[in-house]
Each structure stands twice: as structure tokens, then as C-alpha cells.
């Protein structure tokens, strides 16, 4: 069963309210419509009816569409607002759109209304999805243990770095921004050549996945892994680097410990006079 679209219509002329309803019925939209003609009923409808979209005449006895739009914004309801009016000046059209109206319809061109409603709802749906995605990305950016970064190569400055930089490198975001070459300065001297080799690949537009050591602010040597994605201009010039860096010190130490254990075991086999036979159940 399809959910009906809830339309709140602010209109004080009964025949005009009926004409709007007739025009919408010509479309495929399934809807219900609540008509109000004063400020108090309008405010109550926003709180109790909770519409999906608002259609509003401009001039009413007690207030107008600009005031209705202001009340909507103050209610924090994120829903489309379409002005339906007999005449409108270009200046007023610009003004009400700046104030947040989604669209406006002239009463002598009412046939455009159904499409305007569909377009407005789709626009708000996409904006809501974009806002939700942005919020989720922001949460990820600010809470994950990996360092997300972006660097302007042309101007040699950091554009963006996530708060995890303090955990991985020991330096705050402000310190990273205020010292443009800090990322290079904390490289472990013996691994400088890795940076140089990677940069040659980045200049060619190649994505790099690399491991190297850094000197933490507290003086300890840490292993990190970085995935760096280059962006080239239309002329093939490297203009931006973006990527993610994570601390792999514990992983690296575990790998080195395993290598040592295997080496010790191999030494036992190679240097003992005993014969060792391994049995299986096969």
C-alpha cells in the first residue's frame, strides 16, 4: 500500500484551494491535503499534521508567504515550500527563493504544479541523503584511528588532516598545518629514500601503497603504512595528494618476531645431529 503524500496548503480562497487539489489529482500522485488560512492553524499543522510539502499563497489576511516561510525555518522541519500566487515580480521571486522557497507557481500556469511537487520532493530527498552521508563521513573522519589527509602540491601546504594524526604521529592537526614540511621532517632518516622513490611514482600519476618508519613526537620510532593517491592536472602536472596513513608498529613487530622464530627453528634443524620425524594421521 502506497503512503499518501501529506500536503499542507496555505490558502484563504476556497475556490483556489479546490483548483490546486483538482490539478494535483490529474497527476499520478497519491495525496491528502490539509487547507489552512491563518497563522495559528498553520503553526499547529506544522507540529501536528507534519506535512511532506507546503504549498502557500502569498497574501493572506493575517500574514504572508515570507512570514510562513520564516515560521517553517524556525520549526526546523526540512520540507519543501512552494509558493502559488497570481502575480509575482522578478525581485520578489529572487527574494523568496533566497529565503528558502523551493519553487514558485503562477496560478494561471497551474499545470506545472505536479511536476514542481515531484521535483521539490526529489531535491529534498537527495539533499537529505547527501547531508546524512556527509555526517557519517565526518564522524568517520573524526573518530577513526587512521589519518586521512590531503595536500596541495603546487602551494606546498596541507589542506586537510584528520584528528588521528595526534595518535599516529604525536602532533596535533594545528601543528601539522603550521609546519608545512613536518610530514617530511618526521621521516626516519634511513627511510628517506622510500619517500623519494614514491614521489617519482606519484609524479607519474601512480597510486602508492608504502611502508616506512617515522619518528613520533615523543621520540619513539613507529612503523606506518600509507596509501597515497595523486591527482594530476589536465597537462599532467601533480597538483594534489590524498590518502590515508595507519600505524602498523605492532603488526610489524609481530612479523619480525615470527621471522626470528622461524630462523631459530631452522637453526635447530640445521645444527642438531638428531633425526626429527614428523608423523601425520593420513
Explain what you see:
With about 280 residues, the chain is an alpha/beta fold. It contains ten helices and ten strands. β4, α4 (about 90-100) and β5 (about 105) form a beta-alpha-beta unit. α2 (about 40-50) packs parallel to α3 (about 65-75). It is elongated and about 100 Å long. The mean pLDDT is about 90.
Give a brief rundown of this model:
By secondary structure, the chain is an alpha/beta fold. 44% of the residues lie in helices and 23% in strands. The strands form two sheets. Strands 2-1-3-4-5 form a five-stranded parallel β-sheet, with helices on both faces.
| Estimated structural class | alpha/beta
Give me the strand/helix succession: EHEHEHEHEHEEHHHHEEEH
Tally of helical segments: 10
| Low-confidence parts | none
What's the overall geometry?
A: elongated
Distance between the termini: 62 Å
Radius of gyration: 32 Å
Strand content: 15-25%
The overall pLDDT average reads 88
Share in helix: 40-55%
Number-wise, the strands total 10
Largest sheet properties? 5 strands, parallel
Strand order of the largest sheet: 2-1-3-4-5
Please give the structural blueprint.
Elements: E1 5-10, H1 14-25, E2 31-36, H2 39-48, E3 53-56, H3 65-75, E4 81-85, H4 90-98, E5 103-106, H5 113-143, E6 147-152, E7 157-161, H6 165-169, H7 173-178, H8 182-185, H9 192-203, E8 208-215, E9 221-232, E10 238-247, H10 249-271
Parallel strand pairs: 1-2, 1-3, 3-4, 4-5
Antiparallel strand pairs: 6-7, 6-10, 8-9, 9-10
